[in-house]
Specification:
With 311 residues, the protein is an alpha/beta fold. The chain has two domains: 186 residues, Rossmann fold; 110 residues, no CATH class. The strands form two sheets. It has a seven-stranded mixed sheet with strand order 3-2-1-4-5-9-6, with helices on both faces. Helix 3 links the parallel strand 1 and strand 2. The structure holds S-adenosylmethionine (SAM). The site of S-adenosylmethionine has 21 residues, from helix 1 and helix 3.
């Protein structure tokens, strides 16, 4: 994870694990078929994936554009590019694939190059996402498609929990929401991105002159119910163990968030007060999981936004 609020190093083990783990559970079966048809994907497209990471978007949509097509994953993390390139022969039959080192702010393509320019969970991490979106539009062909899959993690963190843990008192709930809001202000100030940016993309695409703008939300509901015996729940329990119950990892994430809260103008004493309460709840969660009593259910605010460059 990012140390001292430097940009995240996506080749760091814990973040890379997240790219693999989360991606396995992102969509309800059948949704990708529906999305591919809504997007109007067709075989033989030239597709550019900005901030491709391990190549998940290419892998996901290859069956809809890959025959006779060309997928180019762009990232500024060499380690991820190497790993993505090594894995790609498994899924890129019938077309061409390249993984290229490059910046989202200066794509290594001429104007009007690609049929499809896409990204997933990249804009929310950029200091200047509008600039990167303009670059995506520049390299799309006239009539070409822009597709962004980006969340609004801030709004998601402000929603109410549905779980077996006791509710916090109202004052603590408000404090937690305040911390999320101020931390995002700090995050933006530090140049680490805007966790809410997914929600803003349709507007930005409109200002960039795109047409046929549309938005869908991910319809996946994540359930965690004892005895946690489906592959997805086993996976989720393992992740909860690593991200939440592991005190070292939790403390690192908290330290990272605390710095953002302070950068946003928050009072560190307030953060520390909230953390004590949050730590108590984590211990209750640990007990409930061990006793097979813990359950939770949550949706997501993960948008799929499309727009078309004017012909
Ligand atoms: C959260 S990961 C998403 C990876 C992939 N799109 C996925 O959904 O699995 C963000 C990716 O964006 C890349 N990235 C961040 N800033 C970038 C920039 N300025 N130019 C190019 N890639 C960047 C990171 O290296 C990382 O691989």
């Amino acid at each position: 994870m990012g140390k001292n609020n430097k940009p995240i190093d996506w080749s760091d083990k814990c973040w890379k694990e997240m790219l693999v783990y989360q991606r396995k559970m992102l969509w309800t079966e059948g949704t990708i078929d529906n999305l591919a048809s809504w997007l109007g994907l067709r075989q033989g497209m030239t597709a550019v994936d900005i901030g491709c990471g391990l190549g998940y978007l290419g892998y996901t949509y290859w069956p809809y554009f890959g025959r006779g097509g060309h997928y180019i994953g762009i990232d500024n993390n060499l380690d991820n590019l190497k790993q993505a390139g090594e894995a790609s022969p498994e899924w890129t039959k019938g077309g061409r694939t390249d993984f290229v080192n490059g910046s989202a702010y200066q794509l290594p393509f001429p104007d009007n190059y690609a049929d499809l320019v896409m990204c997933q969970v990249v804009m929310i991490h950029l200091a200047e996402p509008e600039k990167a979106l303009a670059e995506m539009v520049r390299v799309a062909k006239p009539g070409g498609l822009i597709m962004c899959k980006e969340p609004d993690n801030l709004s998601a963190s402000l929603t109410q929990h549905c779980w077996s843990l006791p509710d916090f008192d109202v004052e603590t709930q408000l404090l937690m929401k305040k911390i999320h809001i101020i931390s995002n202000i700090g995050r933006i100030k530090l140049g680490l991105g805007d966790a809410s940016f997914g929600r803003k993309i349709p507007h930005v695409l409109k200002t960039l002159g795109l047409v046929d703008i549309g938005i869908r939300n991910n319809d996946k509901v994540h359930y965690l119910d004892p005895p946690y015996d489906t592959p997805m729940m086993k996976n989720a329990i393992e992740r909860v163990g690593k991200d939440i119950l592991d005190k070292n990892r939790r403390d690192k994430l908290s330290a990272w968030e605390r710095e953002q809260f302070v950068a946003g103008g928050g009072d560190p004493a307030e953060y520390d007060k909230m953390k004590i309460k949050a730590d108590d709840v984590v211990e209750e969660m640990r007990t409930q999981i061990e006793q097979g009593r813990y359950h939770a259910c949550a949706g997501s605010m993960f948008f799929v936004i499309k727009g078309r460059k004017k012909s």
